[in-house]
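Continuing the batch. This is chain 6 of the set; chains 1 through 5 are on the previous pages. Same settings as before, nothing changed between runs. Recording input and output for traceability.
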Amino acid sequence: IDVGPGMSGATDQLTYEPISIGDLPTPADEYRATGTIFDVTLSEPLLKAITITARLSSVDELLAGINPVNVITQHYHNGTRELLETKVDFAAATAKAQVDQLSLFALTIR
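Output for chain 6:
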């Protein structure tokens, strides 16, 4: 999680908690959850958007058919699911998405 200068208050506390797949709300119909599910909170609201970066496994890459458009970060907040624009780099094994609020995130494969 990349929280650069000025994106939150100087004394804010960032908390990262891995979540089990059984505790995840059901992903959108054509998506399957990977093992990368986490809850991120900050003691105060974000002042600017931040980048969430998730690691891709070799299994994630195979399930995605080595096609970046098949990898989507889903953001669950206020009882809704948002499909985030996700930038995938298979060589670096990363998936990145910009967010302006924090809560539950899941890396999913279409």
